[in-house]
Amino acid sequence: MIDPKKLLDDFLGAADGSRAGSQSISAPSGLPGGLAAAGAGAGLIGLLLGSKKGRRIGASVLGYGGAAVLGGLAYKAWQEWTEKRAPSPARTSPDQELPTPPADSGFDLESEISATGADARIAIVQAMIAAAKADGHIDADEQRKLFERIGQLELDREEKALVMDELAKPLDVDEIAALARSQEQATEIWLASRLAIDPDDPKERTYLEELGRKLSLPDSLIVHLEAQATAVRAA
């Protein structure tokens, strides 16, 4: 039986106890949620992306804060967009706090269900795997290493099968866009995908632009999401 929290944590290499119990995620390292505290190398996503030349993941959002920080970044961008404020990238000072999305906000991945009826965290895993494949350069040797790494993760049979199936299936942007049950979920799927691509790679940038269109995200909202993603990747 798939445990969505465990699947996403193992996929991202998220640290235990990374989710804040209060109404905010503190920033002891100068980034919300301790974004500079750890790299993504411990998780499958680190292996999936790390072998590609010039690849730099928003390491700490994935390796430390996991779903909580991803949701917080998307929620922050959404708040600023809906309030017509200028983007304020989440990286300005050691005492900055990233808001924790309320359970009824549509951004709390731990309580949301995707359009397929599955846990929204599974949709994030699917979206990030698809984005990482968008350049078309996962060769046989990389795939072998990935499958070996999957075997080392403490996932059950269903969880391993899900990840392997996502890695092996043809890239389908329509399928990924169809995972979103709401505009809030579409925002999280786009941001997660943005963190899993190299924005300077033409194929991956084209994929991301098409995903934004399929998700019906306004260009003005994407500007806010891009600001958060750029700040995280620069950390």
Describe the structure.
This protein is an all-alpha fold and 235 residues long. It has one domain (4-234). 53% of the residues lie in helices and 2% in strands. The protein has 10 helices and 2 strands. The longest helix is centred in the N-terminal third of the chain and has 24 residues, at 59-82.
Element order, helices and strands?
A: HEHHEHHHHHHH
Low confidence ranges: 15-42
Gap between N and C termini: 36 Å
Radius of gyration, taken over Cα atoms and rounded to an integer in Å: 16 Å
Number of domains: 1
Tertiary shape: globular
List the quaternary state of the chains: single chain
Biggest sheet: strands side by side, in what order? 1-2
| Residue fraction in strands | under 5%
As a percent range, the share of helical residues equals 40-55%
Mean pLDDT: 77
Strand segment tally: 2
Protein topology:
Layout: H1 4-12, E1 24-25, H2 44-50, H3 59-82, E2 98-99, H4 120-132, H5 140-152, H6 157-168, H7 173-177, H8 183-195, H9 202-214, H10 219-234
Antiparallel strand pairs: 1-2
Helix pairs in contact: 1-3, 1-4, 3-8, 3-10, 4-8, 5-6, 8-10
Condensed summary:
It contains ten helices and two strands; from the N terminus they run H-E-H-H-E-H-H-H-H-H-H-H. It is an all-alpha fold and 235 residues long. The chain is globular and about 45 Å long.
